[in-house]
């Protein structure tokens, strides 16, 4: 591993005694996983003059950021929104510096509505459009119903699912029940909520569903795709693609990481950014095994599925709205399409199934999945012409993700995210599932990557007794005045 940055202060610090000789050696770290968290951590430690090697199993960087260019323009099969278009968003400066345009789909900051209600065109199964007034009214009613679930969770000591809490609300206040078309629209809102968590309402914890921090500024779609952000952060790093890690051995004085072909890498520490689904699968062997509290956190935190079926058409034949939806008796039967023509000018609709529906669709071939999505569209637009191309994601079954993102399951505490993040000796953990403030998001993955890099830097340098000589992770140009870290009991 070679250190690329030339910094005299650092170089001086890297020399430490080896018998009578002075040997130059900088602290080293192996970053496992080349998604947003891994690339961020590697960038930060590289800039702090660590020797960094990043091991990524796939033949591409980005992980659950996967911008595809095969249509001749960028489309995202994974993340596509910046949730919280504001300066407080840790990722905003990076996106801002790159000058990447965002298309804001919502002014408000609700988990329930990442699109303004006015921008929907909803239809019933027979293709009849739902009056916009009804769409808006049911949106308001859904918020009232959810406020009532807040009372339910305060009245019951034990946790329950969002679905169960909703049914208790309807038992207590029958006047909140909706009938006919309004009921179907309500199911559609529930379906959207399930999309946010990538999980069905009967598995989402009513105690924790709103624990995440919502940044202000609404939700902004990355019009040119998310990948440029990854590639910018990854510039100049030592990245080994096609290196799937199978074993992580930790010792007092370092870590050894083994990849599929038997090759090993050694360093002072490792930052593990492997997706929660992969950690759950236990395909990676830890030696010695991880402590029980860490294993329990991995087992108890939920991982859901959301997929994208991206349909590219020869022409635009649908209404000029941001979201097209089909309302139905149950949330499972509802569906929705993001209109990329409105946001990016491309004749593309993105169908996004989540939870059990996504799991069921993953059992189909790509062609059958695309046909299924198209059949949903035909319900509302019978004259729709067939797509000329399609792309289908399989986040639930791809062996390098085994899920889309994490969520709080019924009966499990929200502090599991923090437990997943806490280091074990010289193993540091990052990734969306380690972010208690912003789980399931790109900016959550980014901020945990920064945190893990800083924790790792402190720990490794403390051990060498050289902390005073090193630059902090934020780099040489950091401001002169940095607030003191003061805590009190
Ligand atoms: C369909 C979908 C839509 C989404 N939409 C949004 C959105 O609009 N906005 C938003 O903020 N977030 C969204 N997300 C969530 C967001 O994509 C993730 O939270 C974030 O990208 C996760 O980054 P990460 O670094 O934690 O994990 P990953 O990106 O998954 O990175 C982990 C890396 O580890 C690699 N890896 C796995 N196993 C091994 C191994 N054994 N050895 C070496 N490497 C390994 C993987 O290949 C991967 O590259 C979406 C996710 C999905 C799936």
TrEMBL record:
Cofactor: FAD
Keywords per UniProt: Oxidoreductase
Gene3D superfamilies xrefs: 3.90.660.10, FAD/NAD(P)-binding domain (3.50.50.60)
UniProt name for this protein: Amine oxidase domain-containing protein
An example Gene Ontology biological process: polyamine catabolic process
Family: Belongs to the flavin monoamine oxidase family.
Record has Cytoplasm as a keyword: no
Pathway it works in: Amine and polyamine degradation; spermine degradation
TM region(s), chain numbering: none
Binding site for FAD: 245
Record SUPFAM superfamilies: FAD-linked reductases, C-terminal domain, FAD/NAD(P)-binding domain
């Amino acid at each position: 591993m070679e250190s690329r940055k030339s910094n005299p202060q650092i170089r001086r610090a890297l020399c430490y005694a080896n018998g009578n000789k002075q040997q130059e050696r900088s602290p080293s770290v192996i970053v496992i996983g080349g998604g947003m968290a891994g690339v961020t951590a590697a960038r930060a430690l590289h800039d702090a003059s660590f020797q960094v090697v990043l091991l990524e199993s796939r033949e591409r960087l980005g992980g659950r950021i996967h911008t595809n260019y095969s249509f001749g323009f960028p489309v995202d099969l994974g993340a596509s929104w910046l949730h919280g278009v504001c300066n407080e968003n840790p990722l905003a400066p990076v996106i801002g510096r790159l000058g990447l345009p965002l298309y804001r789909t919502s002014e408000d900051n609700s988990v329930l509505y990442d699109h303004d209600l006015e921008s929907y065109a909803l239809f019933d199964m027979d293709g009849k459009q739902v009056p916009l007034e009804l769409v808006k009214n049911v949106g308001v009613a859904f918020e009232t119903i959810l406020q009532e679930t807040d009372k339910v969770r305060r009245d019951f000591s034990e946790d329950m699912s969002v679905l169960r809490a909703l049914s208790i609300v309807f038992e207590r206040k029958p006047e909140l029940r909706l009938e006919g078309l309004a009921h179907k629209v309500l199911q559609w809102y529930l379906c959207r909520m399930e999309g946010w968590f990538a999980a069905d309402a009967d598995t989402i914890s009513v105690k924790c569903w709103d624990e995440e921090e919502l940044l202000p500024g609404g939700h902004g779609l990355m019009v040119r795709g998310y990948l440029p952000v990854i590639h910018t952060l990854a510039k100049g790093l030592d990245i080994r693609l096609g290196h799937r890690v199978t074993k992580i051995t930790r010792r007092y004085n370092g870590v050894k990481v083994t990849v599929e072909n038997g090759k090993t890498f050694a360093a002072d520490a490792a930052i593990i950014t492997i997706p929660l689904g992969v950690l759950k699968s236990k395909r990676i062997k830890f030696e010695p095994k991880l402590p029980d509290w860490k294993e329990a956190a991995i087992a108890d935190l939920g991982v859901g599925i959301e997929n994208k079926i991206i349909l590219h058409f020869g022409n635009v034949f649908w209404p000029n709205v941001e979201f097209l939806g089909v309302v139905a008796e149950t949330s499972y039967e509802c569906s929705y399409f993001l209109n990329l023509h409105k946001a990016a000018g491309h004749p593309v609709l993105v169908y996004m199934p989540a939870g059990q529906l996504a799991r069921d669709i993953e059992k189909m071939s790509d062609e059958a999945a695309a046909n299924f999505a198209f059949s949903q569209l035909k319900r509302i637009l019978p004259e729709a012409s067939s797509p000329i191309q399609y792309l289908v994601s399989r986040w639930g079954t791809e062996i390098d993700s085994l899920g889309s993102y994490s969520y709080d399951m019924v009966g499990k505490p929200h502090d599991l995210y923090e437990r997943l993040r806490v280091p074990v000796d010289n193993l540091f953990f990052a990734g969306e599932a380690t972010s208690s403030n912003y789980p399931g998001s790109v900016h959550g993955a980014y901020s945990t990557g920064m945190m893990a890099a800083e924790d790792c830097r402190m720990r490794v340098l403390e051990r060498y007794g050289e902390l005073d000589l090193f630059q902090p992770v934020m780099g040489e140009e950091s401001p002169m005045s940095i607030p003191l870290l003061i805590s009190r009991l």
